[in-house]
Specification:
The protein is α/β, with parallel strands linked by helices and 722 residues long. It folds into three domains: 92 residues, no CATH class; 309 residues, 3-Layer(aba) Sandwich (Rossmann fold), CATH 3.40.50.2000; 269 residues, Glycogen Phosphorylase B (Rossmann fold, 3-Layer(aba) Sandwich), CATH 3.40.50.2000. Helix content is 44%, strand content 13%. Strands 1, 2, 5, 6, 7, 8, 9, 10, 13 and 14 form a ten-stranded mixed sheet that branches. Strands 17-16-15-18-19-20 form a six-stranded parallel sheet, with helices on both faces. Strand 6 and strand 7 form a beta hairpin. Helix 20 runs antiparallel to helix 21 and helix 25 packs across helix 26.
């Protein structure tokens, strides 16, 4: 594309070839559709979405993979579209907007376009049709790429292309989560295999388990940002090695280590093979930490000493740690590392003990586990947590790496996460802001003065949008709930139908949808004191309904038990009428829940919520947060923009008892009465005032553009690390 600085074999020509091939299969007037399809910018671009909505709207809403929809669309309707002037005008506008965006000059940030930032992460949540994400880390990474595109920041993404993606979830008749995986049909995706000078797939080799594993590279365009995805599923690899990139967060520890080698070592080698020399490598979580010794190896091979190579690599590396949870900072013994990574260690030209010492708090303690997080912290010039509170916690957690300093002087800062506004704000809310704000509001997301004008939106207009979004969610939840109960569990049709129909589009709707881990405490709903849940769900003048969703990791039996207990509650007819649990939460479902709920529950056990971003997406659409004061909410809550639960320190059981009682008290005394308090026009004026305060104060602070600006100013700009 015109905006990119050309590199030798970076996949641009492969994208052009794929666009030409698709265009040749379309009626000539529809040829521009091919270029639009091959760039995920359509996901948040108004012009493209407007055009796409005219292509069989019902199929468009139900088919997550738009590339496949276009390829499989019947020729008759396609030829009919080609003769519709209105549609062709919209299509031209979409194609011209994409080309104009790609031609924009790069932002003047000191990052040279020919040497972009390489943003390396184990998962990327760009869109549901690209199922290489599990949850918050991946969605955050996808939002980062979108923000970089919008802000014209030279950046590339580097990740893994999982052939089976992340797990799918089914809840069986006993309430137990059953996992299954499905193959991703790469031919259906807007992704191309990067080829070399011989027009064969470009490959690099990584030694894993004593064998050379051949890694090929796919390219996906996210606006102006290319995302490169590594894949070991090749016929010239050993069958076991083809499995390395099969599943995200596979349970087998040796396979996870192999993934870390492919991502870190293979990722750097792939960039070199494509002619890309990044000026900065941003490791988003520790999974790619092995990129550091690989880059040290390259410099040592060119004649540098270990100390010189280490110093040079440090100056070109920054690191973001995302979680204080032990599972996110897992350690390996040397006995575990040797069979998988020992040969790579030997290629470095340094003793294995020095290599493994990078990942230990005390490099000489051979009994200490080796962690990717410690290695990344030790060999990066700047490190950060993902909220103010998490940054402070990370300094405490990793203080031992800097034993001569006070905790406050540990060189770990923070950049609070943000979300990509135009991805997560629903169409009806964007249309309302088109009428209420300046026409260029989408390019001024970080300006507080702009958002103060939300106060002037007529209450009736804002309430109409909220009613529309809630009604859409209820329609979706009814349909999904009926499908889950009939298809997965085989419930009686009469039971399914009666339960689904009780969801009401006018009732206060509370949502909880995220990874079901024990520390996220979904189980607190079942622990509300004095039969509190049944009181909330009872019929009456102020009814409440809950929409829940989320997956447990396959090895987290305690989290699965949480889902099972919630399922048992659903056997009570009173619960079944007012609470649904939607299976297989993903990026297809998430926007519907996050935009439609009136209240978002967030109940983590402090301080284990590093940041959280779901509540940010909810507030974009006029939902309000009820959250424990942890992660981002600890710096966002001001007493007027939602509600907070202040968890006391101490025994976990006592914390649960306190927070369950506090949650019930908030809901019964404040949240529910405020929602149902109506004036003579039928409007909940004080509720709407709280929505306006939430949106005006928080949108400019918790968006991905602000996050990226903070990275540019605090982390990317070189500063000596003292």
């Amino acid at each position: 594309m015109g905006s990119e600085t050309p590199h030798a074999y970076d996949g641009r020509r492969d994208i052009e070839r794929a666009v030409a091939e698709l265009a040749a299969r379309l009626p000539e007037p529809l040829a521009p559709l091919a270029r639009v399809i091959y760039n995920y910018r359509w996901l948040w671009a108004r012009e493209a979405r407007s055009a796409f909505n005219e292509i069989s709207p019902s199929n468009w809403r139900q088919t997550s993979c738009k590339h496949y929809l276009i390829q499989s669309f019947p020729q008759g309707p396609m030829r009919a579209l080609a003769s519709q002037p209105q549609f062709l005008a919209r299509l031209r506008a979409a194609a011209e907007a994409l080309e104009a965006d790609l031609r924009r000059p790069w932002a003047q940030t000191g990052i040279p376009p020919e040497h972009p930032v390489a943003y390396v992460c184990a998962e990327f949540g760009v869109h549901c049709s690209l199922p290489i994400y599990a949850g918050g880390l991946g969605v955050l990474a996808g939002d980062m790429l979108k923000a970089a595109s919008d802000m014209a920041i030279p950046m590339i993404g580097v990740g893994l292309f999982y052939r089976e993606g992340y797990l799918h979830q089914r809840i069986n008749e006993t309430g137990w989560q059953v996992e299954y995986w499905t193959d991703v049909d790469f031919d259906r995706l807007a992704a191309v295999l990067v080829t070399g000078p011989d027009q064969q797939p470009l490959t690099v080799a990584v030694t894993v388990r004593g064998r050379a594993v051949h890694v090929q590279v796919w390219r996906v365009d996210v606006g102006r940002v290319p995302l490169y995805l590594l894949d070991t599923d090749r016929v010239d690899n050993h069958p076991i090695d083809r499995w390395i990139t099969a599943r995200l967060y596979v349970g087998d520890r040796h396979t996870r280590l192999a993934q870390y080698l492919v991502l870190g070592v293979g990722g750097m080698r792939a960039l070199t093979a494509m002619g890309i020399q990044p000026s900065l490598v941003h490791l988003n979580e520790g999974h790619a930490a092995l990129s550091l010794p690989e880059r040290i190896r390259v410099r040592m091979a060119a004649g540098a000493s270990l100390e010189e190579a280490d110093a040079a690599v440090r100056q070109e590396t920054v690191f973001t740690t995302h979680t204080p949870v032990t599972a996110g900072n897992e350690g390996y013994t040397q006995e575990e590392m040797d069979p998988v990574a020992g040969d790579f260690a030997d290629q470095l030209g340094i003793p294995r003990t020095i290599f493994y010492g990078f990942g230990r708090i005390n490099p000489t303690n051979v009994q200490e586990p080796i962690t990717m997080t410690a290695g990344a912290l030790r060999t990066s010039r700047a490190a950060s947590g993902v909220s103010r509170r998490h940054g402070a916690l990370a300094r405490e957690m990793w203080h031992a790496l800097w034993p001569g300093r006070s905790v406050e002087a540990v060189p770990i800062g923070h950049v609070t996460n943000g979300v990509h506004t135009l991805t997560w704000m629903a169409g009806p809310m964007q249309a309302l802001l088109d009428r209420a704000l300046d026409p260029d509001w989408r390019s001024r997301l970080c300006e507080p003065e702009l958002w103060q004008r939300i106060a002037d939106i007529p209450d009736a207009d804002l309430w109409a949008v909220r009613n529309t979004l809630r009604a859409r969610l209820i329609d979706y939840a009814r349909e999904r709930s009926m499908y889950d109960r009939l298809g997965s569990r085989g419930d009686r049709p009469d039971y399914v139908e009666s339960a689904a129909e009780t969801l009401d589009p006018t009732v206060l709707t509370i949502g909880f949808a995220r990874r079901v881990a024990t520390h996220n405490r979904l189980y607190l709903l079942g622990r509300l004191p004095d039969n509190g849940l049944m009181r909330l769900l009872a019929d009456g003048p102020r009814p409440v309904q809950f929409i829940l969703a989320g997956k447990a990791h396959p090895q987290d039996r305690e989290a699965k038990e949480t889902i099972r207990r919630r399922f048992e509650l659903g056997h009570d007819p009173q619960v079944a009428r007012r609470m649904v649990y939607l299976e297989d939460y993903d990026l297809h479902m998430a926007p519907r829940i996050l935009s439609g709920v009136d209240v978002w529950l967030n109940l983590p056990r402090p301080p284990l919520e590093a940041s959280g971003t779901s509540g940010m997406k909810v507030l974009l659409n006029g939902g309000l947060n009820v959250s424990v004061l942890d992660g981002w909410w600890a710096e966002a809550y001001d007493g007027e923009n939602g509600w907070a639960i202040d968890t006391p320190p101490g025994d976990p059981y006592q914390q649960d008892e306190h927070d369950a009682r506090a949650l019930l008290d908030l809901l019964e005394r404040e949240v529910i009465p405020l929602f149902y308090e109506r004036d003579t026009d039928g409007l909940p004026r004080r509720w709407l005032q709280r929505i306006k305060i939430s949106m005006a104060r928080l949108i400019p602070c918790f968006n991905a553009e602000r996050m990226l600006r903070d990275y540019l100013e605090r982390i990317y700009t070189p500063r000596p690390r003292t």
